[in-house]
Design a protein that fits this description.
The protein is α/β, with parallel strands linked by helices. It contains 9 helices and 12 strands. It has 2 domains: 3-119 and 230-264, NAD(P)-binding Rossmann-like Domain (Rossmann fold, 3-Layer(aba) Sandwich), CATH 3.40.50; 121-227, Dihydrodipicolinate Reductase, domain 2.
């Protein structure tokens, strides 16, 4: 049986990319499109159920997986509706506050929810290997993260950059909120030892570039991930949709959960 997919934020760049990919996947079927009212006329040309509310297009549960790349308030509403109806949900939205993440965890107790600030398999494998590198190099190596994105991106630093920073801070047993530095200006003195710089660059149509620097005496190590198109993230989201449909409620799942299970499969 095909897995039905309902897209929230269907008129956005990620929504359009997802819809295009689903059309070529034999085990998936697009079942509904959700976006703001002013976009519904354009979406109606697809011939699919369209609405400005998720509830209006959801098929009977549990026959669909919702994929939401929108904004934190909209994604929280999707999670609330999913928890009410029992549909599985994949969220790729960034910019959540700690309180909003707490709410997502609460909703995940009632229905399977998958959330990642970055759906790239490559980025998430990078997150897996970074702690070993940070520990092996030691605290004498300064860490800096620079992220580049298109000029329409609303949150800064990117959710991915914050994931990378948190990962590295945990490896060094630091409090990331205290170690993070996202702004330098004026006479600021020398660089503190327990600091992770996270800088944002915005311009043009850059899909996403994240570079992690380890600066030591006499050498520098750079690890760079470049997203060449949004298909990278969309493919990760579709992989997550297939996976989350077979999971049970009880935790807020992420890429590490899915990749760990995949790594153990023969």
């Amino acid at each position: 049986m095909n897995t039905a997919i309902v897209i929230v934020g269907a008129n956005g760049q990620m929504g359009k990319t997802l819809a295009g990919l689903i059309a070529g996947e034999p085990d998936l079927a697009l079942a509904g499109l959700v976006d703001r009212e002013e976009h519904l006329t354009a979406l109606a040309a697809s011939g699919l159920p369209t609405a400005d509310t998720l509830e209006a297009v959801l098929p009977p549960p549990p026959q669909a997986v919702i994929i939401d790349f929108s904004t934190p308030p909209v994604s929280l509403e999707s999670a609330r509706m999913a928890a009410k109806t029992g549909h599985a949900l994949v969220i790729g939205t960034t910019g959540f506050t700690d309180e909003q993440i707490r709410q997502l965890r609460a909703f995940s107790e009632k229905t399977p929810i998958f959330w990642s600030s970055n759906m790239s398999v490559g980025v998430n494998v990078l997150l897996k290997i970074l702690p070993d590198l940070a520990k092996a190099l030691g605290e004498k190596y300064d860490i800096e993260i620079v992220e580049l994105h298109h000029n329409r991106k609303k949150d800064s630093p990117s959710g991915t950059a914050l994931m990378l920073g948190e990962c590295l801070a945990q490896a060094r047993e630091w409090d990331f909120s205290a170690a993070r530095c996202s702004s330098r200006d004026g006479i600021i003195g020398g660089r503190p030892e327990k600091q992770i710089g996270v800088q944002a660059v915005r311009g043009g149509d850059v899909v996403g570039v994240h570079t992690i620097y380890f600066f030591g005496r006499g050498e520098r190590i750079e690890l760079c991930h470049q997203a060449h198109s949004r298909e990278n993230f969309a493919q990760g989201a579709l992989r997550a949709a297939r996976w989350i449909s077979g999971q049970k409620p009880g935790k807020l799942y992420g890429m590490r959960d899915m990749l760990h299970v995949s790594a153990r499969m023969p």
